[in-house]
Amino acid sequence: MKIRLIYMFLLLLLFGCHVHYNKQSENFTHFPFNTTAESHKAGDSVVELYRKQLMGEMNRVIANSTTALTKEKYPGTLGNFVCDALMQQARKTFTNKTAVVALVNNGGLRAGLPAGEITVGNVFEVMPFDNKLVLLKISGKKLISGIQNMVRKKHAYSGLEVVLKNDSVVQCYLREKDIDPEGSYYLVTSDYLANGGDSFTFLNNPLERFDSEVLVRDAIINHCEQFGKNKQLIIPYTDERLIITK
Q1: Average pLDDT for the chain
Q2: End-to-end CA distance of the chain
Q3: pLDDT for 59-69, tens place per residue?
Q4: Distance from C-alpha of 150 to C-alpha of 243, rounded to nearest angstrom
Q5: Distance CA 22, CA 42 (A)
Q6: Could you say which DSSP state residue 73 is in?
Q7: Of the given ranges (74-78, 99-103, 127-131, 167-171), which has the lowest mean pLDDT?
Q8: Strand bridging mode 101-104 / 156-158
Q9: At what angle do helices 77-93 and 216-229 cross, to 10 degrees?
């Protein structure tokens, strides 16, 4: 019996390595887009169901704003609001680590938020990209080195107060205190900028990096929903985080 099994195994090994398959024929089935076949009605009904669900979610009102949030001025009300959203989300996502700076690239904010009702769809228009939230620990020296580029490209930020003179940074503070070049600070941003996007090389090789699965878009939605749950109006604002002197 044992010899028979060995023999069968050798046969399989010998011929199994030389098996070839020849294609005898091939058949294709397709449905033209302009068909009215009955078989498509079931598919159409499923698509319509999901379309209604999607539109229902996109039209869901999550907050109300007294005026529109825009990028018309710098720093703008939209950038300030989005940075606030990132700071709020960072407190929930990166526990035991306090972000003191938020940074959002100007080009990533593709539209404003309207006055009155704000829907989920409105937030998708602001942030159509699937960028994720990242927390970086960087040195004070690196932070200082990146501020000039940050302001020059009109990126949104929070936590910093910057003084410009002749388009050059002459002073920068962190919560009204000087930035210690030898110190270290936590900064929350998108994975796009954390990976050096838009020439933000000062964020490369941080002291520490913490990635998350939270989308920047979802952070904005969550921030809006917090206003809605508390029945508070969003009041767009600007402040003196950027001072231009002559």
Answers
A1: 85
A2: 100
A3: 999 999 999 99
A4: 14
A5: 37
A6: S
A7: 167-171
A8: antiparallel
A9: 90
Q: How many CB atoms lie within 10 A of CB 71?
A: 18
Chain centre distance of CA 136: 15
* Structure tokens belonging to residue 75: 């720093």
pLDDT in tens, 134-155: 999 999 999 999 999 999 999 9
User: Phi/psi of residue 189, each to 5°?
Assistant: -155, -165
In the predicted structure, residue 32 carries a pLDDT above the cut 60: no
CA neighbor of 105 nearest in space, from 75, 79, 134, 73: 79
Which has the closest alpha carbon to 159: 87, 101, 106? 101
Question: Amino acid identity of 179?
Answer: I
Residue 166 DSSP code? T
The CATH number for 58-245, chosen from 1.10.10.10, 3.90.780.10, 3.30.300.30, 3.30.70.20, is: 3.90.780.10
Give dist(CA 207, CA 138) in Å, integer: 5
| Strands in the chain per DSSP E | 61-65, 101-104, 116-119, 132-139, 156-158, 160-165, 168-174, 177-178, 184-190, 208-215, 242-245
As a whole number of angstroms, the distance between CA 173 and CA 133 comes to: 24
- The sign of the torsion formed by the CA atoms of 206, 212, 217, 221 equals negative
> Which pLDDT score is estimated for 246?
81
75 upstream amide cis, omega within 30 of 0: yes
